[in-house]
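Action item from last meeting closed. Structure (404 res):
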């Protein structure tokens, strides 16, 4: 600071620049900054401290990302079944083949399916083994996810060996009109998942529909966007209190889409303004409640981006979700094994397209090794910058640090 300079004229950026050389460690934890802060007056103290903390956190995250090889960073973008990594069979525990595969490419996350669940002790052993492998390989925990919505979509609660009660279809939960019940059920589900070593649930469904023929009908809280929003926000809070990550889905809202993305391309002709007043209302509520992850679906929004499904669209992910709604958390695709996308994109290209759209995690890849190779080749050839990879990995590392 220049001698004679009025300290009250310094901006927050000036403070960061002045203290920048000291950011080699988490500054606020290692230095007594009170004398420096006091020079700026009590009204500025909190803002300056927040700025220093934010800058220190960003630098710490950047250091973790820079410590990873390009191969490790690309691996962090991938979320697939353990069987896909192992290359054969049903995975009930971590054997040598899976362990060696994870050491080579420590994927960012895995999704467990029905066959992976036999009894609580077996699942705890499996999840502990997965965590041990990835921590050894890259120093980062693994996201271990499951589809445990309730009712028609569960992996744990429908098995007597686990001794837990199925929360039931979210349609029934929504019909109670009891927001507190929705929150407590999410907290309960999160608690029994966490006990098994599962730290991420692909729930809640934030789609709005009154159409009983829609495949999402029983999984949706209801047909009124504002009532659904209240339920979704409550579940986000419930999962947070259980320390399990949730993923409101399927952005920007597939409740009004024609078709089922599992088996075909699906479409909506709604404009952004129309969606902001209806389909997007539950997602906005989820973001305001602190949702750490958002899952983007594969619906093609013909009035917004007629050429690409939402998960592949820079307009839907980059402009709408990131810029307009201000979401800086982790964006995960819906399963990239679904027909709505794998009919349009080859495994070698699909990961690059999703990253270009603004997604971070690539779920359920049809051929994860081909996708890995496609991303690596795009970086080598300059079609995709390593900085873009680093953006996603930094978000993922920030998310994972909350699990430690």
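Sequence:
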């Amino acid at each position: 600071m220049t001698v004679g300079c009025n300290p009250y004229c310094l901006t927050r950026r000036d403070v960061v620049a002045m203290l920048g050389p000291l950011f080699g460690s988490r500054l606020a934890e290692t230095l007594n900054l009170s004398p420096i802060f006091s020079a700026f007056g009590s009204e500025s103290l909190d803002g300056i401290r927040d700025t220093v903390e934010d800058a220190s956190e960003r630098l710490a995250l950047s250091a973790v990302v820079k410590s990873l090889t390009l191969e490790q960073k690309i691996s962090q973008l991938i979320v697939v079944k353990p069987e896909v990594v192992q290359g054969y069979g049903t995975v009930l525990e971590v054997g040598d083949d899976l362990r060696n595969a994870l050491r080579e490419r420590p994927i960012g996350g895995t999704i467990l399916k029905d066959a992976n669940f036999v009894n609580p002790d077996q699942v705890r052993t499996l999840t502990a083994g997965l965590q041990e492998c990835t921590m050894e390989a890259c120093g980062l925990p693994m996201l271990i996810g499951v589809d445990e919505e309730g009712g028609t979509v569960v992996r744990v609660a429908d098995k007597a060996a686990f001794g837990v009660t199925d929360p039931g279809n979210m349609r029934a939960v929504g019909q109670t009109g009891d927001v507190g019940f929705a929150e407590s059920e999410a907290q309960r589900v999160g608690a029994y998942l966490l006990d098994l070593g599962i730290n991420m649930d692909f729930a809640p469904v934030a789609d709005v529909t009154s159409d009983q023929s829609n495949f999402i009908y029983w999984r949706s809280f209801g047909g009124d966007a504002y009532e659904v929003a209240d339920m979704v926000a409550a579940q986000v809070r419930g999962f947070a209190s259980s320390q399990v990550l949730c993923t409101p889905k399927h952005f920007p809202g597939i409740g009004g889409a024609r078709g089922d993305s599992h088996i075909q391309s699906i479409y909506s002709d709604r404009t952004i303004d129309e969606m902001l007043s209806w389909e997007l209302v539950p997602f906005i509520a989820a973001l305001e409640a602190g949702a750490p992850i958002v899952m983007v679906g594969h619906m093609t929004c013909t009035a917004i981006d007629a050429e690409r499904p939402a998960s592949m669209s820079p307009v839907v992910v980059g402009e709408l979700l990131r810029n307009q709604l201000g979401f800086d958390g982790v964006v995960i695709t819906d399963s990239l094994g679904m027909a709505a996308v794998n009919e349009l994109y080859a495994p070698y290209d699909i990961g690059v397209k999703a990253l270009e759209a603004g997604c971070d995690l690539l779920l359920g890849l049809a051929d994860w090794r081909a996708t890995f190779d496609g991303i690596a080749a795009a970086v080598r050839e300059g079609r995709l910058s390593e900085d873009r990879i680093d953006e996603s990995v930094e978000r993922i590392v920030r998310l994972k640090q909350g699990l430690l």
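Note appended to the action item: The chain is about 50% helix and 5% strand.
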